[in-house]
Amino acid sequence: MCLGMMFALASCESSSAGEDPANPPAPTPPSPSVEEGNYFVSTTGNDDNPGTLASPWRTIQKAVTTVEPGCVVNIMEGTYYEEVNVKVSGTPDKYIVIKNYNDKEVVISGNNTAKQLMLLNGVSYLKIKGLVFADCLGSYTVGLKISNTSDEASHHIEVESNTFRNLYATSTITYPENVYAGAITVAGYHASKSIHDIIIKGNTIKDCRTGWTEAIGITGNVDGFLVNNNIVTNTGNIGINASGHWGISSDPNTDYPRNGVISENRVSYCKSPVEGGAGIYLDGSSNILVEKNISHNNVYGITIGCEVINNSASNNIIRNNVCYNNEGFGIGLAGWSPLGRVIKDCQIINNTTYGNATATDKKYLGEIAIISSSNTIVKNNIFYSTNSNSNILYVYDKDDNLTLSYNNYYCSTPNFNFFWKGISYPSFDQYKNARNNDLTSSFSDPLFADIESFDFRLGTASPCIDTGDPGYIPSENEFDLINNTRIVGTGIDKGAYEKQ
Q1: What is the DSSP string of 451-463?
Q2: Poorest-pLDDT segment among 103-112, 125-134, 173-182, 347-356
Q3: pLDDT digits (tens, 9 = 90+) for 25-49
Q4: φ, ψ for residue 94 (rounded to 5)?
Q5: Element containing residue 107 per DSSP (H, E)
Q6: Domains (range + CATH), the chain
Q7: Ramachandran quadrant class, 439 (left: phi over 0; alpha: psi -120 to 50; beta: rest)
Q8: Considering only Cβ atoms within 10 Å of each terminal Cβ, which end of the chain, N or C, has fewer?
Q9: Ramachandran area for residue 81 (φ above 0: left; ψ -120 to 50: alpha; else beta)
């Protein structure tokens, strides 16, 4: 860097703040930037300019190879046809901010070709805010990717309030093998240096065709992340996925995401023409908390699975979520013990599922499906089926130390079943007496506030009020779906909402 440019950048200032599976460590977001060191990019600028408001740069790439810690890159309104490779890092007290100027629309466009629109490899202390990533067509497309170099892993990166749209792996609605187009990808390739302190918050991902990948994907050696308050809809496959054991990291001991939180997201219409598309999927990941999400009209609502043989997903908690109108189960634990794919030490607590298993070929999966699990706890949930001749509960394969208690089941139509490893029980009493499980659970209409508008709060006369596990003690910072205090009255309510 020339001496003149060093003096020009010296005025930049910015500031920042900054295993219990029930409360895995979430990254701490940086505090708002002071934004005194502002630099500008415009479609009418020139990269030979000084980057001021009056004389802006022309390309985003110029900015992200030039600015120093504490600076703010203000991108002015317009469409930028670039693949941006961010080369700069901030510091703990001086984040670099890359954002749209004056809340105007800034589009980074692939111009309907296969592009990786923004890469952040081995960089840190950055905020990406208020941008639109759009209009890619072709395999190995990605809107924004956080990864590592050969010797540095990315960390302390916040991706906030951006929009990802029209990212297509193919031009057709059918997918050939090995086509991919993710919106946000976090991939930890380094065996010993984990990507960490990643925040993906308040983004909108819509109208994509992701192929054989997911809209938000976290994979490989990633230790510590937050995916919060995003809207993910109509993506062509899985909405949010934390996946492990795929050989992304060369060390099997670090090749999985862990210690993350997936919370308060709204995920819908995530459906694939070639495979099951869950709204939220934990595939071989561990110590992940999934809470206060709404997942509806997907193939599956929320899934814990492990697709790679002789591996497991462990110590994950699914709590205070709502899943409705999905084609398959609302919540599922989907392993397969003959191939060594086991779900272990997981908890399903205080969720509400309604009207799932809508597809004829998936009616058997019911509101909750448990396939090959070990040391699993399922309690304080509401499982409400609306489908005749379907299962409410589906248990298959391994069920070591499976404990179900204080749940409330209901079906609004006749001819339902509880299915347990090849045997169908046509009533709740027959099921619980035969299996010696769910003995403290109930079968009754939960009396939701307004089913027609999918308002699953409990009505005043609901039998689910104060009837959850009387010994249940909420974890620190545990609230219901809409952030009300848990346990109001004599005990915790069943389902995702606490009656106030």
Answers
A1: GGGTEEEEPTT-T
A2: 173-182
A3: 555 544 443 346 899 999 999 999 9
A4: -140, 80
A5: strand 106-113
A6: 34-458 (2.160.20.10)
A7: alpha
A8: N
A9: beta
